[in-house]
Structures are given as C-alpha cells and as structure tokens.
Amino acid sequence: MSERASRDVLRDLETSRMSWGEVREILRQEKTPDRFAEYHAALAEATPFGDDVLLRLGEYLYVVREADGTHTVRCGECSHAFGDPRVNWKLSARVRIRRTLEEFMEIYHYEEVCPEPGIAEVREYLCPGCFTLLSVECVPIGYPPVFEFLPDLASVYEDILGQSAPADEDGKWVFEDRTLQAVQKWGTA
Amino acid sequence: MTTAQSEHSQIILATDAGGTMTDAFAVSQDGSFSIGKALTNKVNEAISYANGYENAAANWGMSLEELHAKSIANIYTGTLFLNTLLERKGLSVGLITTKGQESMYIHERGHSWLGLEWEEVLHHKLHHHTGGDMFRLRAALVRGVAERVASGGYFMLTEPGQVKAPLNEAETRDAVNALLDEGVAAIAVVLLFSYLNPAHERRVREIAQDVMRERGVTVPVILSSEIAPVMKEVQRMKSVLMEAAGGPIVREMLRKVEQAANERAYRGELATMASYGSIVNIRHPRMYETILSGPTGGLIGAKTIGEILGERNILTADIGGTSFDVGMIQDHHISLRKEPDFAGHRLALQMVALDSIGAGAGSEVRVDPKFKHITLGPESAGSDVGKCLRHPRVTVSDCNVVLGFLDPDNFLGGDVTLDREAAIRAVREDIAEPLGLGVEEAAQGVLEVLNANLNHHLLTMLKARGANPTEWTMFMFGGAGPLHLYGIDVPFQKVYTFPFAAAFSAFGVACAEYAKRFHQGASYIIPPGADRDVKASIAKAMGDAYSALRDQGVRELNSEGQLATKEVLYGASMRYVGVLEVLDVTFTFGAVMTPEDLDRAIAEFEENYAKIYGKGAALPESGFFVNELFVHVVADKPKPRFVRYELADPRPAESARKGERQAYFAGTWQTTQVYDMDGLVAGNVVRGPAIIEHPMTTLVVPPGAEARFDEHRFIEYRAAAG
Amino acid sequence: MAGDKLLGQRTLLEQIEYTDELTSSGYYYGLRSLPRKEQDPITYERFYDAVHSAVMGARETSKNVAASPGARELGELLFALLTPEGHAVAVSSGLVGHQGAFRIAIRYMAENGYDRNPQIRPGDIFTACDPATTGTPHPGDVYTFVPLFYKDEFIGWAAGMNHTMEAGGAVPGAWPPWSPNTFTDGYLLPPTKVGEDYEDYTWLYKHFERRTRAPMFNILDQKMRVAGCRMVVDSVTEAIDKFGLDYFKDATREIIEETRRICSDNVKLLTVPGRSRFVAFRTVPYAGVVDGVWPQSAKNWLLHLHSEVQIDTREGQVHVNWDKISPANWHAQGGYKGIIESNLWLNVMDTIGLGLKPNSGMNLAVTYDMPEGGLFNPPNDRHSAGNPWASSVALFNCFGGGLEVSKRARGFVEEAWNSDLCWTGIQGEITLKNGFSFGFCQMDLLGASATPARPYMDGEPLGTAWWNPSSDTGSVEEWEYVLPGIYYLSKNVLPSYCGHGRFRGGLGMQLAFAVSDEVQEAIIGKIGASTGNYFTGQASIPGGGYPAPTSTLIVYRQTNILELLRQGEYPGGMAELAEWIESGKLTYTDRELHKEEVGALFVKPGDIYIVAGNATGGWGDPLHRAVDAVALDVKEGFIPASVADRVYGVPVDETGSATESLEAAAEARRAEIRRDREASSVSFEEFWRTEREVVRSGELPQFLTDAYAELNGFSPSFREEFARFWQLDAEEEAQS
Fold it and tell me: Which of A81, B47, B265, B318 is most deeply buried (CB count within 10 A of its CB)?
C-alpha cells in the first residue's frame, strides 16, 4: 500500500478528490502497518497541529499532544480545546436540542419518518469555537450523552508507535473513563 | 503464417477487432489459414480491416483484391460495442418507463457488486452502483408514464397481460417532448410486463412519432418488447439502453467496413457474431446481441470439430495471457446463459455460457508474505511477458521459462529473446523465498495453482449440469492452451488441442452458422391433470407463437442476404409452478402444436430437470409453467473443410526434431525432446517428456503422456500407451 | 457405523467436549502451528479450493430448485462444510453469517444423544428451525444438515440454510413481530431427522402444508437444501479421494485456525486500542395488541441496544460488552445465542475479516458478554424469537460502529463508513377472490440497504447488505408474479430521505402499493432493522452527521385508486400522493401511520399502503458539503431546494444550477446558519442542569419513566452511570 497510500493519497481521499476507480484501487491494496505513520503525516499537514496531532477521534476532533506532554481533544477547524480525551468531549461542547415535530422536520423533511416528539430529542453537538456540527444524537429525553470513542493512549504509544506510554500528572497514564468525575464538579447547586 | 502450398479458394474471412490489435484471419477451403495483424483504427475500423487483410493476403502471395474476390463469407467481430459504452461515447438516450419506476437505473435492484470476485463481494466497501454512468443517464432523461398491465401471477384468474390501467397518453406526450427538449438521440421504452402485452410500448412509439413529426425531428424509439421481451424489468432496461446507446454507432461502423470490403472486390454482405454464438448480418435489428462476439468463436470451433469427431459433449478452455474462458457444448448445443453479468450489468440476453477466470499465462504472481497465499492476476504483463522480458513483476510466464517449458530464444517464433536468469531471480526472490521453497518447487507450485483453478472451474461447470466427466471431451486452445494442457486432472474421456490453437477463436468464427434466436416471454399454466381441452388450447396458443417467431426469423434471414433456412429449433423455458428458476429445453420433436406435443414437451422438461437436480427435486403435483418460448432459425453457410490425411508412421520424421533441452517434471530435471509442430504429420505420436514448438504456441508433453496427431492433425493428448 | 461411538472411540458429545478443551488454549483445536500449510502451502491452498468450490457449486446449482424469491432471486441461502462439531470450514456466498450458528444445532443433537437415537447415518436428513435449540436466529431461517461419511467413518456435515417465505406464526410472515412467546412464533422444529437416503419423509411436507401459510415454497426450499447438501457431500468425497482422509482431517482444522489468526492479526494491524460505545433505540408497542390473552405482554417497551467494544491491539482481541442491554421480555424482538453468533460473524467479515478464508475461526477472534436474562440470552426457552433480526441488526451496527471509528483513527480511511445499514420487510397473507390464499414475505427492502456515507463519499440507494453480501432486492415483475393482487405504484428512491452531512447517507426507498379488486382480503405487516421506530436508525453514528430517519408504513383506507387506475392515473410516489390529496384528486376515508413494527393490518381492495425505509445517515457537517454537490443533488431531484438552503446553506433554485455567485451566496448563508446555531445552542453544562431537572422531577412521559426503571433494574452498570451522571440521590434513583 505504501507506494500508493502516501500522505497525499490519503489527503486526496479525504477531500474526495478521487474517482471511484482510484478509491477501488486503494480498497483492494494490501493493508500495511506503515499506514498509521502515513496518516499521521497527512494529518500533520491538514490540521493546525502539525506533528503534535496524535490521533483522529472523528471527522473534526483530534487528540493533540500538548507542550507539557499531556493530551487534549481539539477541533481541527478552530483548534478549540475540549480537554482530557478520557472525559467525553461532549461535556465541553455547545448543544442544540430539537424536540418538536417542526424542529425535527427541518432536518428529516417528512413528518412520517421523524422521531417521536415528547419521547425522542435530537441533540446537535457544536464546537464552541466555530460552531461546526461535531456529532448528532437522537435519544430518549433524559438519556446521558454517548461517549463514542475513548482511545487507550498508553497502548497507542506502546503497541502502535513502539514508544513508552505518556506520563500523567500522577505517574503512568491510566486508561479510564473520567466523564463522571467531570460531571461531579458541576455539583448539584 | 502459411501452410503447405495449396490453391486457396472458397476463402472465409473472420476478423477480431480488439481495442488495440485487429486480427485478420483467412481460412481456405482446405483448412489452411493465414493471419494478418494491424493496429485497430478507432476512428475508422475499415482502415485497420484493410491493413490486416493486406498482410494476411501477402502471406499467401495474393493481393487484397484477389483475397476478397476469392472469399465467400466475411465475418467481422470486435470490442467496439463494449468500448463505446465503457468510454461513455454512446448516443444520449432518453428512457420512458412505467410511472413509479423512474429510479430503476439508480438502484439497479441492488446489483452494486456485479463483476467483483467473491472475496471482493464480501468486502462491502467495494460495492458501488455503475447505474446510469455507462449510458450517461440523469433524472432529466428519465420519464415515467402511468399505465399498468397485469402480471398473470400463477394464482390468479386475471389474464396475463390484461390492461389494468390504460396508457396515459397526455403524460406520454409530455414525456416525449421533455426528452426531445433535452436533445436525446434515441428513446428507450421499458414498461412493466410489456413482454406479456406490448400494446402500451407500441402506443408510446406511435405517440413519440406523432410528436416528432410535429417537431420535425426523428430519433429512433426502441421498445423492450421488441428488443428483449422477457421477464425482469431491470435486466430488460439494461439491454434496451445498450441497444439505444451503442447499436446505431456500431451498425454505422460495420457498414463502413462492409463498404471497404466491397470496394476490395468482396461480393457478399458483411456479417458479425451474436452473443449466442451465431452469425448475423450487420443489418440485424438487435445489434446489442453482438456485444460479446469474438470470444464465442472458440465454442463454435469446438462445436464444429466436435461434429467431425462425433463428440456430443465438450468442455472448452481458452487460455490467454490475462484470463481463461471455460465453456461447454452439451449434445452438440453450445450452452447459453439467460441473464449474463457483463461489464457490471446484468442483461436480458442469450449469451454463450463462458466463465472467464482472471488468471492466465501472463498473470502476475503475488505471494502474501504473512499468510503465504499465492494469488494470480488480475493484473497481467500482456506483451511485456514477465521479469524475463520487461514487466516489473513476476508472472506465470517467468515460471514456465524457469522450468524449461518456454524456450527463451524461441518465444513467439524467436521474435523476442527472454532472459532466463532474470526469470530465475524473480521466482527465487518474489516467490520461493517468501514461501520457503526451492526455485523449481515454487515455479511448479505457481503452475499448480493455475491448473487447480482451471480444474475446479471445469468440475463446477460439469456439476452445475449434473454431468459426469468421463462422458465428456476436453478441448484446450488459446495461445497458452497447449502449454497448460498437461495440468488437466479431470477424468475426461478424451483431451484435444490443435496446431492452430492460438488462432482457434478466429477459426471458430469462420465456422459459425447464420442463425436468429428469438425469446418471447409467455405465461402458460398447465395444471396437474389438465384435461385435453386445456392442453389443446395451450398447445394452439404456443403453436401460433412459434409460427410467428419462425416466420420472423425466416423473414429476417431472407432480407439479410437471401439466406435459405436450413434448420429450425424450438424450445421453451419451463418450470414447475412455484419454482422460480426456469429450465431451457430445446425440444427434440420440433414445435408444440398439439396436446400430444405438449405432453412430450413436459416429459422432456422433467427428464432434463431430474438430470440436473435429482428426482427428489421434482414437483409435478403443482403443475407446469411455460415462461418463455424460443426459436432458433439456422441458415446455411459455407464452412472450412478439414483435409483427411493419410496416417504416417507414429515415429516423427527426423526433420521434425529441433533438438533437446532440460525441463523440470515431477520434481526432477529431465532431458526433453523438442519438436517443430509444423513438421509433425497425421499419424505421428510424440511421447513425453517432450516439447512441441510452434511460432504461436508451445505444447508440453510430460513423461508418461503422449500427443497423437490424428487424421485431421488434431492433437489428442493422452496417457502414453504401454 | 459401529455401536454408539460415532467417531471411532468418541460419541459426538465427547468429540465436541474434546475439541472445546483443545480450543480453550486460545488456538482452535489447540493448533499452535499449521504443519500441513507450512510444509506445503500450495497443496494446502488447492485443498481449500476444492472444498470451497464444493460449497459454492452446491449453492449455484441447488438454488435453482428453490421456490421462494428470497432464495432464488435474492440468493438468501447458504451451504457449508462443517467439522463433526459443526464448525464451518468453508462456506458458500449468500447468507454467510449463519455458519456461526450451525454448531448450536449440532451440539443440541449431541447433548441429546442423537447418535444413538434416532442415529446419524449416511444420507440422513436433519432439519431445524427452532431458535432456542438450533441457533436459527428466527423461525423463517431453516437449517438442514446431512452427515458426511467417508467409507463408513463420520467426518463432518454438509449444511444448508435459507430464509423461507412463511413461518406459520400467530401473524403471517417469516418474522412474526407480534409474538408474545415461543408458542406464537410459528412452526418450530428442533433438530429433527426428517428423511433418509436423501429423501424427505412425507410427514414433513404434510407439516409444512398444515402449519405454514406457504407450503409449496417451504417444501421446495427443503428440496433445495437437501439437493445442495448432497452435492457438498459428493464433491467433498471426491476431494478426499484426491487428498486423502488424514489430509482432510488435518487441513480442515488448520483452515479454521488460520482464519482465527488472520482475524487476530487484522485487529493488531487495522485498529486503534480503546473503548467505543454506540447505541440504538427501538420501541416495541404491544399495549392493546395482545392484552386479553397475554397480560404480561400488555405494555410498550423501549429497547436499549447498547454495544461497548473493547479493542486490545496487543492480544489482537475484540471484546463486546453488552452489560447495558435491555432484558429479555415477552415480545418478539429478543432471541437466543444463534442470532448473536450470526451477526458477529457478518460484522467481523467486512472489518477485521479482510483477506481470509471465511469460516468459524472468525467467531474465535471476538469474545462477548451477553448477560443472563439479557435480550438475547433469555432466562428460559419460552421466550419468542420471532423478529430478532430487527433489533439485532441495530445492535450490531453499534458493534460495527466501534470498529469503523477505530479503523479510521488508525488511518484506514477507505475502510470506514457509518455502519448503519438497515432493512425493512413487508409480509402478510393474501386471499384472492378465487379463494386462493397464501402467506408471503416480500424482500424488496430486505435484499439491500442503502450504503452508509463514508469519510470520502455519499451513500448509495440499495447498495449493500452485510447479512447478504450479494445484495439484490429482486424485480417488480418477479414479485408481482409471486404475490398477485397487489400492484406496485412505486419502487423509487425517496428524495431527501437520508441523514444529511458533508457526505449524504444513501437515499431510502419508497414502495407504494394498491390492493386490487382481485383481492378478497389481505393482511400486511411491516418489520425491519435499524428502522428506529420512534427514534432515528442509530442514536449516533461514527461520521457525526445526522442519523438516518426511521422507516414508516402509511395506509390510506378506501381510496379511489382503482377508479383512477381505470382512467390511466395513479400517484407515482409520496410527493404526488400528497398533492393529489391536497387537490382532492385522491380521496380516502382513514389514514394510519406506523413508524413501529406492525404484525397484521387488514387491507381491502382500494386501499393504498406505502412503505419507506432503508435510508442511511450522513458523515460530517452538512455546511461542509461541496456547494456543487448540493446543487447537483437538487438538479437530480435527490433533495429539494428548500433542504439545500435550510440544511446545507446553499440557496440554489430548483434547476440546481451551480454558479460563481452561488458559492458566494452559500458562504453568506452558511455564516448565517452558524450564527443561528450559536443563538439556539447552550453550553452542555446548562443543558445538563435543565435536563437533570426533567429527570429528577419525574416530568418524563410514563413510557420513558418505565423504560429507565426497567433498565436500572436490570443493568447495575447502567443504573450506576445514569444515577451518577444526573447526580440523583438514592430516593430519586429508586423512582427513576
């Protein structure tokens, strides 16, 4: 794959500058271990973070290496920081809620195929910096936000990059979901 | 190339115009032939046609005019139709279909994976709709019109084809006007169930013609009920679109070629090949039926030779550089496929059942380092042969060079010299070492993979018809056919190849017959224990339909060069009520006209059905359903004859021996005799280990096997006697 | 065969336990190396080709015997070569997932001593379709097994399955969605010897005739499975003649272990380690449907289809944690182990299953926890498995979503998409005026889903289906021929029916039908997967765009459609139908709307029903979609100009002409929409406070209060996260 899926190829693919024939070629090629590095190179160019970009979390969000060695989730459009990857980034987003049929129909056009008002709500998670739409949830009212992807950074360093795991404020980086601790801080006042 | 001096007369010309090269093949009455090649002129194929025969004639010391003057038939096949569509150069077509079905061309009923290998089908990200691309369809070019015709489903009282909603003529006028406003060059009409009742499609054409008259324009209007009147709307639509987009362009080019031939003193009309393996005049009204033409030649050649040898059941393998095509002839009939997948589309078209497997003599060899799989193709070196010449990756040819099967100094008659050392290096580094094998072992392994692949396809094809290999004969041809002949390990009763293996397809085209094949969708239900009256009325209806189709065939053949009808075959696609798959049965007794004929037809259907699926699968208690009628009208045409030679002594003449070299058989290097194919005569028997060379092919005969040249110089490959 | 020892010295059960013991080493059959393969990789590949072409050939040939369009037209069938324990060595194309479930039936036969009684002999036919005992996901999936003997030694099985037309449940169809328990699921056969010497016993056909609504189809499908199994036995026997019995025994084990290894290596190669969670919701409204007879089913459920995928790139292992799934209950959307095994395999295939020999080795690369009493692990065998494909496909889209996110993060952009495929089934029973009556299930929208949007391209209508790789929805002409009396008014894509995004989801389809006057009466039902019901297809998707809209069934009663048809007029789809109703051209008495699944609606001549389904969701922010792509969508009628303006911020006219000025106009419009987003959104913390009040104060609709209570009661981990996230005190926790 390396000969074709160079940094440029991956960038062209993501900016959809490729014919189906070219895409099919890439799909058919053997998958090789150097891909992570190639993609990293492509992201270093395509994002504001240069080599500090570690991982792509989603269409617009990245895990970025900070100067102090910690890691932060950032928006690739405006660099807005969402904090520790171990906390669901949605807690740091702006959110727009749709609950009525009218609001649903703005997106889903036909009344007959819309979510059910009074039971479902559509949550649009937006970047506080640039108001790019980062993720959408359609869930029952009162359902906690979905923590879509919690990467194990220690293993990323050790298994994929072949480096030692990043340090943490209290020693070795721990792989755990810290969302609930973060909510705790809001208190119940 | 030339054969022994002979008076060339009654010549048949057969052209295969590929995307790059045009092969001009001339075969004389005595079976001797000459091949000329020319670069295909895509703008005007008449030019490459003439160039090709210029040099074919030269081989025989004739002028182009002499050759044409002595020619009695002229068949032109090629890839123009397919390339026109693939390069999206077809005419702009507008589609009128039944209202509510307008996005048929987008969703293709879900066929987003046609043309992928099975492993790729499992890789869902490779699924993608080709949809309207090939025909440049877009929303503005597709219009629906309200109309409904009943299906005649077999539980119903309703007459099949009964009109449930009359054609909405106002919508039809609007549709035609809208399409003409878009500047379409042809209008295709595909209405639901039109194969049961074409009235609405015909009315659409009348209205279209009125509208065009008013507007003072004319574009062809093509009806699915005339082009492909069979069930399944998406397949039917694809066929009609192909005809509308490509037909006129191809017909025009063929006219140019015919004109060029006539100007060179050829007196007859030009013909081409239909995908169902017959010759049709270039005035044939269903030009899309010729979309697959050249490759059918091999099967026709095999059928012709089979008749000479008295072989009823033949499996054929055409081994080329990039692929091998496997086909079959059962009871002297070439097996056809009803809904072939072609160029990413499923068509309503009778096409010779050729399975094309993407691995051939020039295929690249890849070894998955992690899991040690060997895979061949689909990429191929073509004229770059392999690392032994100038291809960047190791190929099957490299392996044949390594093992001494191909002579580096005598490849294609010595036109190019191959680098044996390079081949050895390539096989060692790219195959042997990753697999942890020796060089010879690895090369042999690659050939075994190719052979195994071939054998499994041959077996699968036989099983699919419940056939037993020992009742079948194998014909192997194509440039690399003789080279891989020894790899066959299916227990066929006989295995043959031919001195002209490399030109076999072109030869086959020359052997083809003029014929017309018609399929007409129908809906006759014969309930279990139907009484004579019921059967009589069905038989009457079938008889009338058969007569009409036969008359059309005879009419078309007459109008296309006053061809005298030689033979008419009748058959039907039938199923047990309930079963969806139909079985095509060609009746041994002719057309169904009487209740007794109908009983015979049912008996023959049941017999064939049991042969394939086993007695347990029968379901006579649910009744029978006739879903399609077909008629095959054949006209006479001169064919190449084969000279019968006196049988010479089995031992080849010394003059036929070219010397000896080392070749690798069954794990050891062995001294192997090398013969000159053209020096071997009828009666000669060459015992392995031996290699028989010909400028266009190489026949490998391993130890324990022998090649016998029979009275026609056909080569029977068999275990060495005694 | 000698005595009751089917395998020389072992009974079938002893053999299964022996193999399980070996496999508990982490290597299939304890194979730490692959000697046959390593000594001679070429012969090894040739052997696989031989057994693989055996099952492929069986499928291609035998499916022609089939009656049901599902098998014949759509290729909804499968043949496989199994080890004695029922592990698949090679499978044909078709409904490949089922290979994962075959071993469940084999184990059941072993545990119940079938090798002694009724005995397992050459040519015996065993057929099974009872989910609780055989692994068949739902009653419509039928399995047939024929033992494979070489000389007189038992060495494996030929297996065939297909999706049949009608299962004989309380409501007609192959997936009865209204079925409170196993007794209303239909005609369920535990593994049963139904024939010998490759010939079915007559009683089986009589059972099909009496206990199902499509006997002819079901009988022919049985004949097809038997014919195919016989071909597998014959071809494999030939292969053994060539390669030798010992080679067969070794190589079949190695082929499975090889696959497990490749799968595991693919995890290391293709994914990023970590945890991902996706969820889908479905509603199962039974209240008012079966109350009288089955009070325990007199309620409406919310299904919580939550998948947590844990990826370990060191061990190359994927683990799925379903500890937050809804409990099994008295409705048809739960199931047994087979549905999990089938789905798992199907999802693995296109993700970490690339480049291998598809077989049971794939199931070993994924471990999972399905809690006791969970939706697909019911506390007893009385639970219905009528319609588990509906809920399980949604659940497994969530599983797939985890892998897609992880592959994208690793850099395999080309391999990523939204993993929100869906299907919609129409089924029922038609009685014609001529008295003929037949049950059916129509697979127009089962044979293929729209393809999901990818990080680099839009989804496409009817493009793929991971439950049926060679996707096909059949032809209208074939369906109307098999299901006469119901006319298609439309089988078209439905404009703007998708999740929007930088790349669109594939457009869903609209099927519109008119009930003709040849019909006395008809019963129709609608079911489907990832149709969302009161929600979207999935709650959220990897690409972050809008999830797919739900499917729907709309019925218009006693319309004047038959009169219109006689005049050569009918609406071509939902849009025109709405216009005609507006203008009074189309009249009707009642209109019914069903987003949820429906078991049985009675329809009569003159009624129109419309089914929309199979849309997929979007990838990325619609405001990032290329302006000319939006314009083209409008031009081709894929979205109306209003949607282009409102959702995509491209103020294009109906002609969809893209111009320089359009780029500028779009820029302005998109800035405006961003400002609107700012104005209409709040910080998550602020949202948290208001939403928390709703949860605490019990303002939630009763339906949701009950749903959360059920989940909190069943899943400790859900209860803990729910309570801690909303910071509920003990008392609030108790009531919610």
Answer: B318
